[in-house]
């Protein structure tokens, strides 16, 4: 195993006590009136202290549900059906609700995808921050206030004292997102789940927020689970990357390996659809034709088979398992395992 | 893409010309903040200050800038969700900030807005059909129910939604599909101008690509004009004909989209470009970090908004404000550094 691959499914991390999160074969289903939606249906990954794992993948592929499962913050209809989640020696699937509440906000903090959902519209942002800081530390009112102002300054909010009195609707989209980030890091958590943390930020502020997170990592060894669709951020921040599609892991390896040697056909499609600054032609962007499968009906074939240009008849009958096809490089594709090798761009013509 | 489409793309003018469809003149928007303490005097937040922009028919004017610099406020003023504090917005020969009643309604119909968050901008209790139909009821454009239904089906097809999904609710659609519903809703009244406020930033790249292609095709087919707000510079470059760069409520630079990447002038634009995440893990970005405190839009504003953080700041910049001036054909900059070069 190479140095960069420290977060992968090996035992090195566990032995050295560096491993902070270990998720194995997680399955989270939603029981709805219309049937059972297999939102997460077989996801495994691990994360070491001070490292960043990025999850990328199609919208609706289960990235947020995976993250919410880790801290068991699921809608009533959602249930962890199978698999194990171990955080810092704690069995997160079975730990009592009371202890879970203590963990959330102190050891683990979560930056939610929708910035508005993390803020209460009827309270001033300063009040919300001070309350959170006091709930998870023994700081007095004044110290907590000062800490909150300092955090707002660190995430680049101008004139932070004045903004403590603002209500969420008085702030721009990006400012709300930064308040959430400030709240998430204010208690020095061991582990941060950041679900699309910078979608509303311009690149200079984004860069500032990302270096804040990296600084926290270097200083306190914070581990980060980063969900993003911005591949530039992945290249900048991640140690390892997991690519998800329709509830399953389809590729999992180190960030550099994923960039230089992507192996799953869905990953290829994803990398190809990105607009690039270096492009000069104003033509259509490449897309992946078709739509993802109905999550009530998955589990009998490769979930990508209806859109995969490389699909064979077998792909419609068998579920590909996640296999280590090269050292530290895991892929779930029937045509990408040891003996069989696909070549990117060489689409089959027999269909 | 078909050949005719490709030709249409090639023919799009690089520098806008002709009569503007929308003319924003010296637009300012202030918000009054309540003082934190009781009896303290209320402060004024200058969200937009003296913004002037001409938008030409059939073009896409991209808008980028620091978070909180007033992009959404500008969009909201244009669609009349905010009442401007001063200045004019001229559309169809009249200042729409002065309109009310029926004439205002007519203008609102022509200028639609698509919001960033595809989820919270849709009412969870409304099916796709009802959501798309609603503007026709609000603006009473079609009294015949079956004609309305016809129209709903028409736009659903146009944006690539499955008409089988007519009766589905928002949560039953993926992010990309929900954004298509928003687009369909904006299109149903057949507008001329659409303000797109970060319409793709919540979408994954493959769906983002679908939605961006959709915007382009609709523009080619209907001659739509877009005001396109985004933080993603590669998206802006891909979709825009011209780009306006904003900072602290003002336009700092305005030029053709390609030029902003090939030949940026304003110090803020240069800093912005240098902060873009790399295209590969092996590229290292050479970031120009703007030093110093980020200035606040609250209270009186003097000098160049970037003065406190600009590496080229001169004495003059601290008390005088540079106006947006043309320094090369089609390229405007608000910075003394370039004004002087031209003057010499
Ligand atoms: N409360 C719920 N009830 C039923 N289905 C749900 C619920 N929450 C999520 N799902 C479904 O689970 C799947 C995974 O959702 P998730 O939010 O994890 O996607 P995601 O990968 O985060 O997508 P995005 O990039 O759009 O945020 C989706 O198909 C979604 O519709
Ligand atoms: N209703 C309001 N009351 C008071 N201040 C407001 C209100 N709406 C916006 N502002 C302020 O106006 C400024 C500009 O906000 P705006 O939402 O236009 O920024 P933006 O450029 O869209 O930012 P972002 O990229 O983060 O969305 C901000 O300082 C914001 O706090
Ligand atoms: S298993 Fe078959 S359908 Fe699935 S990704 Fe591989 S080639 Fe494509
Ligand atoms: S006017 Fe002065 S402070 Fe402003 S950007 Fe130009 S050089 Fe910098
Ligand atoms: Mg999500
Ligand atoms: Mg905005």
From TrEMBL, chain A:
GO terms for cellular component: plasma membrane. The keyword Transport applies. InterPro entries: AAA+_ATPase, ABC_Ni/Peptide_Import, ABC_transporter-like_ATP-bd, ABC_transporter-like_CS, Oligopep_ABC_C, P-loop_NTPase. Keywords: ATP-binding, Cell membrane, Membrane, Nucleotide-binding, Transport. It is found in: Cell membrane. It comes from the Bacteria. The keyword Signal does not apply. CDD domains: ABC_NikE_OppD_transporters. Its main location: membrane. GO terms for molecular function: ATP binding; ATP hydrolysis activity. One of its GO terms (biological process) is peptide transport. Residues 21-271 form the ABC transporter domain. Belongs to the ABC transporter superfamily. This is Dipeptide/oligopeptide/nickel ABC transporter ATP-binding protein. It comes from Tractidigestivibacter scatoligenes (Olsenella scatoligenes).
UniProtKB/TrEMBL annotation, chain B:
SUPFAM superfamilies: P-loop containing nucleoside triphosphate hydrolases. Residues 33-273 form the ABC transporter domain. It comes from the Bacteria. GO terms for biological process: peptide transport; transmembrane transport. The keyword Transport applies. The keyword Nucleotide-binding applies. Signal peptide: none annotated. GO terms for molecular function: ATP binding; ATP hydrolysis activity. Keywords: ATP-binding, Nucleotide-binding, Transport. Belongs to the ABC transporter superfamily. This is Peptide ABC transporter ATP-binding protein.
């Amino acid at each position: 195993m190479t140095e960069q691959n420290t977060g992968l499914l090996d035992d090195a991390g566990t032995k050295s006590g560096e491993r902070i999160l270990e998720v194995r074969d997680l399955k989270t289903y939603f029981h709805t009136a219309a049937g059972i939606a297999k939102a997460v249906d077989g996801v495994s990954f691990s994360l070491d202290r001070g490292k960043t794992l990025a999850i990328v993948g199609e919208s609706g592929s289960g990235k947020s549900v995976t993250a919410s499962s880790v801290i068991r913050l699921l809608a009533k209809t959602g249930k962890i059906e199978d698999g194990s989640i171990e955080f810092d020696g704690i069995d997160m699937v079975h730990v009592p609700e009371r202890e879970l509440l203590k963990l959330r906000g102190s050891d683990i903090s979560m930056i939610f995808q929708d910035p508005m959902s993390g803020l209460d519209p009827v309270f001033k942002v300063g009040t919300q921050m001070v309350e959170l800081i006091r709930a998870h530390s023994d700081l007095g009112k004044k110290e907590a206030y000062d800490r909150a102002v300092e955090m707002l300054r660190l995430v680049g909010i101008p004139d932070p004292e004045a903004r403590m009195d603002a209500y969420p609707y008085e702030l721009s989209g990006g400012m709300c997102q930064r308040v959430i980030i400030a709240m998430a890091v204010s208690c020095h958590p061991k582990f941060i789940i950041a679900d699309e943390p910078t979608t509303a930020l311009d690149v200079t502020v984004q860069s500032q927020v990302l270096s804040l997170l990296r600084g926290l990592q270097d200083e306190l060894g914070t581990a980060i689970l980063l969900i993003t669709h911005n591949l530039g951020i992945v290249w900048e921040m991640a140690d390892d990357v997991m690519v998800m599609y329709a509830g399953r892991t389809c590729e999992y390896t180190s960030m550099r390996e994923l960039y230089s040697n992507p192996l799953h056909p869905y990953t290829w499609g994803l990398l190809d659809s990105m607009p690039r600054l270096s492009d000069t032609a104003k033509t259509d962007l490449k897309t992946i034709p078709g739509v993802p499968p109905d999550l009530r009906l998955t589990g009998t074939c490769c979930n990508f088979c209806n859109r995969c240009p490389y699909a064979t008849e077998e792909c419609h009958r068998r579920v590909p398992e996640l296999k280590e096809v090269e050292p530290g490089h895991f892929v779930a594709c029937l045509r990408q395992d040891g003996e069989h090798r696909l070549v990117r761009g060489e689409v089959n013509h027999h269909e | 893409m078909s050949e005719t489409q490709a030709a249409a793309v090639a023919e799009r003018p690089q520098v806008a010309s002709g009569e503007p469809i929308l003319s924003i003149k010296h637009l300012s928007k202030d918000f009054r903040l309540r003082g934190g303490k009781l009896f303290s005097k209320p402060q004024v937040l200058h969200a937009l200050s003296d913004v002037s922009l001409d938008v030409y028919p059939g073009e896409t004017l991209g808008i980028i800038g620091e978070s909180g610099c007033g992009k959404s406020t500008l969009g909201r003023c244009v669609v009349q969700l905010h009442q401007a504090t001063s200045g004019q917005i001229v559309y169809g020969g009249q200042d729409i900030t002065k309109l009310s009643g029926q004439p205002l309604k007519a203008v609102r119909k022509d200028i639609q807005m698509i919001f960033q968050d595809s989820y919270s901008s849709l009412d969870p209790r409304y099916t796709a059909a009802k959501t798309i139909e609603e503007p026709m009821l609000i603006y009473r454009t079609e009294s015949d129910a079956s004609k309305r239904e016809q129209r709903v089906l028409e736009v659903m097809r146009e944006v690539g939604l499955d008409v089988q999904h007519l009766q589905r609710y928002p949560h039953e659609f993926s992010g990309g599909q929900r954004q298509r519903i928003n687009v369909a809703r904006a299109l149903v009244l057949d507008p001329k101008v659409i303000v797109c406020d970060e319409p793709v930033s919540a979408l994954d790249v493959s769906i983002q690509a679908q939605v961006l292609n959709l915007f382009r095709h609709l523009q080619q087919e209907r001659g739509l004009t877009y005001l396109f707000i985004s933080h993603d510079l590669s998206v802006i470059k891909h979709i825009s004909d011209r780009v306006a760069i904003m900072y602290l409520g003002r336009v700092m630079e305005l030029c053709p989209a390609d030029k902003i990447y090939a030949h940026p002038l304003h110090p803020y634009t240069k800093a912005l470009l240098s902060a873009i995440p790399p295209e590969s893990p092996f590229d290292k970005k050479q970031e120009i970090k703007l030093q110093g405190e980020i200035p606040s839009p609250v209270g009186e504003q003097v000098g160049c908004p970037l003065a406190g953080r600009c590496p080229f700041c001169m004495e003059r910049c601290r008390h005088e404000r540079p106006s947006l001036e043309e320094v090369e054909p089609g390229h405007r900059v608000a910075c003394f550094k370039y004004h002087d070069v031209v003057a010499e």
